[in-house]
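User: I'm writing a short report section on ligand binding and want a predicted complex to refer to. Could you take this sequence and flavin mononucleotide and write out the structure as tokens? A short remark afterwards would be nice.
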Amino acid sequence: MKNIIAISGSLRKDSYNTKVLEEIKKMIDKEVSFEILDISKVPLFNQDIENNENKDIINIKNKIKKADLVVISTPEYNYSFSGVLKNTLDWLSRGEDLVFLDKKVALISASASRFGGVRAQNHLRDVLLCMGANTLYKPEVYIAFAHDVFVDNTINDPRVKKQIINFKDNLLKEIN
Ligand SMILES: Cc1cc2nc3c(=O)[nH]c(=O)nc-3n(C[C@H](O)[C@H](O)[C@H](O)COP(=O)(O)O)c2cc1C
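Assistant: Sure. The structure tokens for the complex follow:
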């Protein structure tokens, strides 16, 4: 079975970035596994302890390694992507296995401003380049004014919904 691993860059309970991943999970065909990882237990990276990876990091690394594709949806914090996501990526960049090397990665950002997190995604692309990822550059999805887009946990804006369906279709094309 093909499998997609998703990471939300926000730990917030009502995160729009997590909600968009949950929407995609609902849309994905049953023949494809789509798992949203929990990165809330990843400790702060410290090079002194990098050889003592805890079970969450080992688990996340194994899942990324086996994934046919990784989706990351990030908020924009101060014109960049979130610290919790960077912390997780720093852990995943270390050790013998380069888990992101040549891995297909598809990006989304959802943020409060009219720019939809474009600056966060651009920073994230740079970091993923350093990790050797094959970050897809199309379709671009920047969800602006995210607080107006989501109503009762679902996407209420038809244009955004169409973009997400197109994004989902592309994921399936990329793994088949
Ligand atoms: C520390 C912090 C910095 C932020 N900086 C930005 C920013 O630079 N650009 C932006 O569009 N939104 C910014 N925001 C607003 C976020 O886009 C908004 O809180 C968004 O809902 C976060 O994503 P989430 O819903 O997935 O948690 C910031 C929010 C926080 C908490």
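A remark for your report: The first strand starts at residue 3 and ends at 8. Residues 3-175 form a domain with the Rossmann fold fold (CATH 3.40.50.360).
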